[in-house]
Amino acid sequence: MATDPHRLFEDWFALAREAEPNDANAMALATADAAGRPSVRMVLLKGHDQRGFVFYTNQDSRKGGELEANPNAALLFHWKSLRRQVRVEGAVEPVAADEADAYFATRSRDSQLGAWASDQSRPLDRRETFESRYEEMRTRFEGQDVPRPPRWSGYRVVPERIEFWTDRAHRLHERRLFTRRDGGWIEGLLFP
Q: Which of 126, 127, 171, 181 is labelled catalytic?
């Protein structure tokens, strides 16, 4: 059973991109604050390789603050149409500035401006406040490229555990668990 979990993920992800009607790259991101209180939300996978799974956000957001206090996270991909899930657990590290810059440059201009206008996760008195700030950013950056905001970046979940779950009849599911050991991967099975 000695399969590379990253290669297996790529195979499953390719199938999900064909089968899922919306956002095959959507994943639940679970974090916890310094006191261990959990929080979960959906984010989008924006990169994956042997180093880990990458997503982007405002570092001053709730998730950014939780990751600063407790740099560990769990991810869950649920591809309902395939009846498959992938669970990832591991430490979190920031991506390099040039990697964040390169990704930010691929975002739509409206998304770039929104990143400047938003104090993500902070209280908002009314929608018009945000829309006004967005218009201010449109004016500020008119006729020029929109640079990445200083507190907007990416995080990489460096997996220690990756579980591949396949639905089976009568809840007799298949669960393959890969655990990082000594720079490599150990594979085993879990009871459903």
A: 171
